[in-house]
């Protein structure tokens, strides 16, 4: 059996297995925490004013965005489908002097009251783990429910308009660390016949003193275009969907902003 013919795992399994090594994809994780908080915080200020604001990071991973926003003074709550990732986010935040309640939570069934947050964030291409229109609608409806009226939605995803056109089968290797502590990360993609979904294999090569340990995680994504995501957001009760490109926002992925319509 070739590597790309092996079955993809569930998103929870993928991130449970990745949580301990996630930071190794960054050249400097703390620098990325600070930079992403600066960029996302600026978007929040532009839309809602200085704050501080109540923020839900509903796909927090190990806390890359949530920790920085908490350190910047926002009142952040974090959730993730992976309990392992959420637990690490909570621990990493505490180690940096930030208060970050973090729990395992499925964005399709959020355990928060209606109108609780000023901002809901889902970053790092998390929403495209949902593979059906019903699941995407369910998640976005939950994000709208927990936002106050005129609250801010922030979503970041890969540039799937371009990727669906080119249908790449791999990503260039990323090298993080220095000397004997270098980690190499790359991905292999196998596109489905529908041209919209793909199975991803995430490879990490970690030095072990005499060679390399290879860690492989598998999952599936739906390559949602800007138009598709905007339409889903409007159907869920958001208005004024607007896409910001990396050159405009400073964030490394396209960012969708939208406001919670009055119910």
UniProtKB/TrEMBL annotation:
GO terms for biological process: methylation. Keywords: Methyltransferase, Transferase. GO terms for molecular function: methyltransferase activity. It comes from the Bacteria. Gene3D superfamilies: Vaccinia Virus protein VP39 (3.40.50.150). Pfam families: Methyltransf_25 (PF13649). Residues 55-151 form the Methyltransferase domain. InterPro entries: Methyltransf_25, Methyltransf_Superfamily, SAM-dependent_MTases_sf. This is Methyltransferase family protein.
């Amino acid at each position: 059996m070739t590597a790309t013919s092996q079955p993809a795992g569930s998103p929870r399994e993928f991130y449970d297995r990745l949580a301990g090594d996630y930071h190794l994809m960054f050249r400097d994780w703390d620098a990325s925490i600070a930079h992403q908080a600066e960029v996302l915080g600026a978007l929040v200020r532009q839309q809602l004013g200085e704050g501080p604001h109540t923020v839900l990071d509903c796909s927090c991973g190990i806390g890359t965005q949530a920790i920085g926003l908490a350190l910047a003074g926002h009142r952040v709550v974090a959730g993730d489908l992976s309990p392992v990732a959420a637990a690490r986010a909570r621990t990493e935040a505490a180690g940096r002097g930030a208060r970050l309640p973090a729990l395992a939570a499925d964005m399709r069934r959020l355990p928060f009251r209606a109108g609780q947050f000023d901002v809901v964030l889902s970053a790092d291409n998390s929403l495209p783990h949902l593979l059906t229109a019903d699941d995407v609608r369910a998640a976005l409806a939950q994000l709208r429910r927990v936002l106050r009226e005129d609250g801010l939605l922030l979503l970041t995803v890969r540039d799937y308009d371009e990727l669906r056109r080119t249908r790449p089968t791999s990503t260039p290797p990323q090298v993080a660390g220095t000397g004997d502590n270098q980690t190499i990360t790359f991905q292999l993609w196998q596109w489905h016949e529908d041209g919209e979904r793909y199975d991803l294999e995430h490879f990490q090569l970690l030095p072990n003193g005499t060679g390399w340990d290879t860690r492989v995680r598998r999952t599936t994504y739906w390559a949602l275009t800007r138009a598709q995501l905007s339409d889903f957001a409007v159907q869920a009760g958001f208005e004024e969907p607007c896409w910001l490109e990396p050159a405009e926002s400073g964030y490394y992925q396209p960012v969708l902003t939208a406001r919670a319509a009055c119910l």
